[in-house]
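Researcher: We're teaching a course module on how sequence relates to structure. For the next exercise, students receive a sequence and then see the predicted structure as tokens, so they can try to spot secondary structure elements on their own. Here is the exercise chain.
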Amino acid sequence: MRTKPPSDYTAATTAYYDANAAEFCENTAAVDMSELYAPFLQEITAGGRILDAGCGSGRDSLAFLKKGYQVVSIDGSAEMVSATTKLIGQSAVLMRFDALDFVGEFDGIWACASLLHIASQDLNSVLARLTKALKPGGVLYLSFKHGDAERIENGRFFNDLNEALLGTVLANVPQLDLVRVWTTEDVRNDRKGRQPWLNAIVRRRSPQRTE
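Model: And here is the predicted structure for the students to work with:
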């Protein structure tokens, strides 16, 4: 069921992560994401520049840094920014999606389980900002809990998408082309077999050459 989110849904979700940062990091920092990294990184030149958009515990930022990529890590939660900074040894940035102002800076953007906290009414504008942050030809990975509901769970707002809803969203961002879409099971030990995820990689179109 899709319902109109409360006006303060972003603040409430951020407050949840600030209040539960230690537990969240404990539950997610050691999760093996290698099977999801592979299709994303194969689209990015070695040593390329990646934006970890919604960096959480810093797990993915650290993995990309260890693989030799340049990484900028952002999150809307001050506690998550602190956790990432401590884990990766470089400063993460406190920044909400609606404040993104990068222009053509990144070869790839990793938005793992972060855009799912953006309501449908705001998702197009956020995707436009992320697209603008990509270099032409750059790729964006995004993931959502598989479903068709907008809901609040334990204080957090969630926007669940399925393949059809993702297609509708992407149709409103003409600069993005779908590269791949697939589903996976939750890789966290306590959630295995209980929560399917929708994963997608999209690419910013390169300008058409004129003769």
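Model: If you want an answer key for the exercise: The two ends are 50 Å apart (CA to CA). The domain at 13-204 is CATH 3.40.50.150 (Rossmann fold).
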